[in-house]
Amino acid sequence: MADGLLKRMGIDIETYDPLIGAGIAGRIRPNTALAWTESPGSVTREVQDVPAIVAAAHARGVPVALDNTYMAGVYFDAFAHGVGISMQALTKYVGGHSDLLLGSVSVNSKAMFERVGSAFADLGMGASPDDCSLALRGLQTLGQRLERLQASTLAVARWLHLQDCIATVLHPALPSCPGHELWKRDFTGATSVFSVVFQESVTAEQVNAFIDALRMFRIGMSWGGTSSLVMPYPDLARPNRHYRGRLVRLNVGLEAPEDLIADLRQAMARAAIQEPAAVA
Ligand SMILES: *Cc1c(COP(=O)(O)O)cnc(C)c1O
Question: How far apart are CA 41 and CA 17, in angstroms?
């Protein structure tokens, strides 16, 4: 969107290192209109120093927006941390059942409401009553689902962290995740989407065989629902990192975590990534 649509509209976009923190001050130009943040970052899960970014941006009169989808608006209080615009893909936790196409933008002031709300009307967008009723129904169980998803995901992520074939678990509640200390400072929980990076000795073919051998984690796109999902990212690169097909993204659903761990264990053995006997 930044390289295509926005560019054609004459909007200049500059990306930044998600761990830049207060260093964002050096990137703010006279024409900077908005700082757009996402924490933790999609797929590679970097936790950003949102309060430091807010302080630097506000010092120059620049509003800050946050994609708060991952924390479902629950485990990170965007407005309390100075964010003016909080966006969520309600497809994930609010919908909760992988069957809703809806998003939300919440703002912390009347002035911001007038700017964002009028753009919404000018663009002719509307949300259908059926979609809104699904979101309202999802909200009734959001708290219970998040508690269960958080506990199950931590159990699965900690088990993965112990496996020899895994180099890194990118889950904000684990110390191996970039920005983990910021997560401890600013967040009150974690949800169900995270990634693992296999050791360099594991080939991209083995990663694919592992994914194909999984029975409970199915390949899918609508994350944050009741079912566990898995997705490889063969071409994923970051400015100073290339994962060469060794990064796999997971969504833990409402199934029993011990069943999910058993599924991961048998798939590692079938893909010959790790001997069953070596799996704790
Ligand atoms: C999933 C996700 C989105 C987009 O969700 P859709 O279901 O594709 O609308 C946007 N931002 C973050 C941080 C997400 O995790």
Answer: 11
